[in-house]
Amino acid sequence: MTNRIHTVGITAALSSSRPAVLLALPAVLLIALLTLAAPAAAQPPPPDAAQQADVVFVGRVVELAAVADADVPASATTAVVELVDLMRPDPPGVLADFVGRKVTVDLRDGGLAAGDLAIFFTRLWQLGDGLAVVELERRPVSATAAAGDRARADLAAADDRRLAQRLEAAELVVVGKVVGMRTTAAVGPTDGRVTEHDPEWMEAVVEVQRRLKGPATAAADDQVVVRFPGSQDVAWRYAPRLEIGQEGLFLLDDSGLISATAGPSSERWKVDESGQVLDADQADRAARLLRGQ
Amino acid sequence: MSRIARSALAPAVALAATVALLAAGCGSSRQAGDGGNPDSPATPQTSARWAVRVIDVIPRALSAESEQDSEPNLAVDPENPRRIAASAFTPNPLGNGNAPIFVSTDGGDTWRLNPIVVSQRMTGDISVRFGRAGGALYAGILQRPGSLRLSIQSSDDFTGAGAMSELVTRDDVDQPYLDTLTVDGGDRVYVGNNDLGSTPRTATLDQRPDGVAFTTARVEARTTSAQDWPPVRPAAAADGVVYAAFFGRRGAADFELVVVRDDDGGAGAAPFGDLRDSDGMPGVRVVSGIDVPFENSSHADFGQERLAGSSLSIAVDPADSDRVCVAWGDRRGSVPLTLHLRCSADAGATWSADLRTVSSAANPALAVDDDGTLGFLYQRYDAGRDRWITEIEMRPAASGGDAPPPEVLVLADVPADRPTARFLPYIGDYLHLSAVGTTFYGIFSANNTPNRDHFPQGVTFQRQADFGGRRLLDLSGRRVDVSIDPFFFVLQREDEEPGG
Asked: B465-489: per-residue pLDDT in tens?
């Protein structure tokens, strides 16, 4: 309900504040001149809109109840929108070629007219000949305020929230360096069961340089043993692969495993998902987030 | 042959009937053109009987991608074969969000990506099927994050933006493989899987025999050596008969290929007990004492692929559920994997000898069309040329006398040494073939170099490709590395419309 009220509010504001002169400007000049802002009366998008959106862009409505590509099903809620400026993904990757092109947006509600500009928070629907997205939230564009920067700040804050959630889930967060490598005798959770998806755990010895979260160890040299999948199987396609000399910020889970070799309690950590080993220069950011800032 | 009639047959009579039907039907052992040698196929050729379309599934908008889109699967809507879904190890191109499938609404001529599968970024194993009526799409996947989390999902609108609904989730499950059947408007769903949470008898079917509620059927009745092997493949016939095939593990290198059957769609207190072997146990052993190798590493002598014990397929004749065929891979001598094809004409009670063997090959897939023609798809590694060759053999049913000779069509003949494998499987632990009416639809993964010599039946790329320069290009004209793509294909009789 809150979302719906909010959207109606900014839609009304957009309708009343849209400067007609801007519609006549070339898109490139438009981007240069525009500062993007929500009207003062508008609420910020719900906390998860910026986090959930995987395609965020400034767009200009070309046609309502239409689609940009014939293979996308048209409906009363679809609209053709010119993608003026792409804000996410950053870098744009496979979407780079869509800047300046018409895309299909499945709008969550009405209130737009041809020529309207808005920031669209969306998620991917279809990629074929063209691009189709589903709208999660929308912010009107104003020439007088500075919320283009604010939108980008919201996206950055969303990235921070995502990292903060990962930090919260981790039991041990350290900055360190891989100083040794040893394999295990495969006493992981598969426990001898034969599956092509077995992680085939490897063990890396990580020298802790800075401990941001988690219990201290009794080990004098402050090392932890970190398991990571050695398997080439697709299940571990994006798992971190540790190498001797690698430095980083390690977000460690309790492996729940019994080490193949008798060892101290430090031997109980693992990384098996992308995002669990970050560049070491993320340490200060992580520390700030762990402090709740 | 009715269920009652078959159950009343004496074994000797059943065997005689099997031999007679095999000679005339789903694979004569007297293969014209092969001199009777089951390891000698007919000469590869362009077919006079079949019109073939091969299409690289990667959409134009993804021209810059160079992913390893291996282990493809395919679902064709039986009510409207223009509606097709395909899957592979294809990540969400934005790096997050749900896993994508490929969708087509024009019979496979054009494809687009639709990220509706509930799994982070991509799936582990995945297979997809439509219900036989009503248009719902089902997926059996291993869900991410995680490695062995089964998720069975469905969507009433596979081109829509809504995420699929999760019907079943369970941990410690491997290689879900789907088939469906629709009875009185209800979609029966069968998901063969290797349930490592039920050791030592792990061969399992998660099934929805009443079209409403899922149950779990354990289909291994015999003693195993710790567990069964990964593939458990279901095949459902329109009359409600459902088969499943799996590798029962009896020792370290001692396996049996077992086929079970349920004549009532898996309903009842003891499902899949309708086919019993001489030991009185459920499940007929098609072959015993075979070695099904499991070596989870890239093999230089097998085109960078691994040996995951997963080369297994079963298909049932849609017009006669007594006619059923299996194809599997096992190790023979120094050859990593040899495929075998056998058929039964008495609902799995007795089986032929090998109707065909293919040396150094993987990924068998079978389908039978409404005319009784058997399609046998596989990928053969040519060690001398270091190539992966994707072939399909069409084995027509007999009409009165001997069956016509099988035709072998080469769909792709591509380098096996590039690209370098990024993960395993390189091209897949399985692929898929299906038939709707008298049209065959299939999918395989292969090196995507835009070279017409690699695709003897012709090929269409949606992604940007310079066939003259044999280069892939992004939408800005920059060169893109060669990778593994899924290739959809259709075999249509020359005088018929798709789905005909």
From this structure: 999 999 999 998 999 999 999 999 9
